[in-house]
Prior knowledge:
- The structure is a single chain.
- It contains 2 helices and 9 strands, in the order βββαββαββββ.
- It is α+β, with helices and mostly antiparallel strands.
- The chain has a single domain, classed as Beta-grasp domain (Ubiquitin-like (UB roll)), CATH 3.10.20.30.
- The strands form 3 sheets. A 5-stranded mixed β-sheet has the order 2-1-8-4-6, with helices on one face. A two-stranded antiparallel sheet has the order 3-7.
- It is globular, with a radius of gyration of 13 Å.
- The model has no long low-confidence stretch (mean pLDDT 97).
Amino acid sequence: MPKLTVEDVGTFEVPAGKRLVLGLTDEAGIDQLHACGGNAKCTTCKVEFVSGEPATMTEAEKAVLAAKGLTGVRLSCQMTCDHDMAVKIVSRFAGSGRAGPGNRPTDAIAPSPTWVV
Protein backbone atom coordinates (compact mmCIF):
# COMPACT_ATOMS: atom_id res chain seq x y z
CA MET A 1 0.00 0.00 0.00
CA PRO A 2 1.25 3.50 -0.79
CA LYS A 3 2.32 5.68 2.12
CA LEU A 4 0.77 9.12 2.50
CA THR A 5 2.74 11.54 4.65
CA VAL A 6 0.87 14.60 5.85
CA GLU A 7 3.19 17.34 7.07
CA ASP A 8 2.97 17.88 10.85
CA VAL A 9 0.47 15.00 11.17
CA GLY A 10 2.08 11.64 10.31
CA THR A 11 2.41 8.86 7.75
CA PHE A 12 -0.48 6.59 6.79
CA GLU A 13 -0.98 3.58 4.54
CA VAL A 14 -3.67 4.21 1.93
CA PRO A 15 -5.25 1.56 -0.29
CA ALA A 16 -3.72 1.75 -3.77
CA GLY A 17 -5.97 3.64 -6.18
CA LYS A 18 -7.92 5.51 -3.49
CA ARG A 19 -8.55 9.17 -4.24
CA LEU A 20 -6.13 11.39 -2.34
CA VAL A 21 -8.95 13.50 -0.88
CA LEU A 22 -10.48 10.33 0.61
CA GLY A 23 -7.13 9.09 1.87
CA LEU A 24 -6.68 12.40 3.66
CA THR A 25 -10.07 12.19 5.34
CA ASP A 26 -10.35 8.44 5.94
CA GLU A 27 -6.83 7.25 6.72
CA ALA A 28 -5.16 10.47 7.91
CA GLY A 29 -8.21 11.87 9.72
CA ILE A 30 -7.76 15.32 8.15
CA ASP A 31 -10.78 17.65 8.03
CA GLN A 32 -9.98 18.37 4.37
CA LEU A 33 -12.39 20.68 2.59
CA HIS A 34 -14.06 19.43 -0.60
CA ALA A 35 -16.94 21.87 -1.02
CA CYS A 36 -17.89 20.76 -4.55
CA GLY A 37 -17.93 17.10 -3.55
CA GLY A 38 -14.70 16.29 -5.37
CA ASN A 39 -15.67 17.41 -8.87
CA ALA A 40 -12.79 19.82 -9.68
CA LYS A 41 -14.96 22.92 -9.46
CA CYS A 42 -14.04 24.76 -6.26
CA THR A 43 -10.33 24.23 -5.39
CA THR A 44 -11.08 23.86 -1.66
CA CYS A 45 -9.36 20.44 -1.62
CA LYS A 46 -6.02 21.90 -2.67
CA VAL A 47 -2.77 20.58 -1.21
CA GLU A 48 0.89 21.42 -1.65
CA PHE A 49 3.21 18.53 -2.49
CA VAL A 50 6.35 18.04 -0.44
CA SER A 51 7.33 14.97 -2.48
CA GLY A 52 5.80 12.42 -4.81
CA GLU A 53 3.72 14.84 -6.87
CA PRO A 54 2.08 12.98 -9.76
CA ALA A 55 3.47 13.90 -13.19
CA THR A 56 0.02 13.98 -14.77
CA MET A 57 -3.22 15.78 -13.95
CA THR A 58 -6.75 15.74 -15.23
CA GLU A 59 -7.92 18.29 -17.78
CA ALA A 60 -10.52 19.39 -15.22
CA GLU A 61 -7.83 20.09 -12.60
CA LYS A 62 -5.65 21.95 -15.08
CA ALA A 63 -8.57 24.10 -16.22
CA VAL A 64 -9.82 25.08 -12.75
CA LEU A 65 -6.33 25.86 -11.44
CA ALA A 66 -5.65 28.05 -14.50
CA ALA A 67 -9.04 29.78 -14.21
CA LYS A 68 -8.32 30.67 -10.58
CA GLY A 69 -4.69 31.59 -11.28
CA LEU A 70 -3.36 29.02 -8.80
CA THR A 71 0.15 27.60 -9.01
CA GLY A 72 2.13 25.39 -6.64
CA VAL A 73 -0.97 23.50 -5.50
CA ARG A 74 -2.87 20.47 -6.71
CA LEU A 75 -6.45 19.29 -6.21
CA SER A 76 -6.56 16.24 -3.96
CA CYS A 77 -9.87 15.20 -5.56
CA GLN A 78 -8.23 14.74 -8.96
CA MET A 79 -5.63 12.09 -8.19
CA THR A 80 -5.26 8.69 -6.64
CA CYS A 81 -2.77 7.31 -4.18
CA ASP A 82 -0.80 4.97 -6.40
CA HIS A 83 2.67 5.71 -4.99
CA ASP A 84 4.21 7.23 -1.86
CA MET A 85 3.56 10.95 -1.52
CA ALA A 86 3.93 13.71 1.05
CA VAL A 87 1.65 16.74 1.22
CA LYS A 88 1.04 19.89 3.18
CA ILE A 89 -2.61 20.59 3.93
CA VAL A 90 -3.79 23.98 2.68
CA SER A 91 -7.58 23.88 3.12
CA ARG A 92 -9.09 22.50 6.31
CA PHE A 93 -12.66 22.69 7.51
CA ALA A 94 -11.59 23.99 10.94
CA GLY A 95 -11.43 27.76 10.79
CA SER A 96 -12.97 27.95 7.32
CA GLY A 97 -16.27 29.43 8.46
CA ARG A 98 -18.12 26.92 6.29
CA ALA A 99 -21.11 24.92 7.48
CA GLY A 100 -19.41 21.64 6.54
CA PRO A 101 -16.49 20.25 4.55
CA GLY A 102 -18.69 19.32 1.55
CA ASN A 103 -20.45 16.20 0.34
CA ARG A 104 -18.27 13.09 0.43
CA PRO A 105 -16.53 12.62 -2.92
CA THR A 106 -17.29 9.43 -4.84
CA ASP A 107 -14.73 6.64 -4.94
CA ALA A 108 -13.96 7.34 -8.62
CA ILE A 109 -12.43 10.58 -9.89
CA ALA A 110 -15.10 12.91 -11.20
CA PRO A 111 -15.62 14.16 -13.78
CA SER A 112 -14.36 11.14 -15.71
CA PRO A 113 -10.67 11.95 -16.11
CA THR A 114 -8.81 12.83 -19.26
CA TRP A 115 -5.13 12.86 -18.32
CA VAL A 116 -2.61 15.49 -19.43
CA VAL A 117 1.09 15.93 -18.67
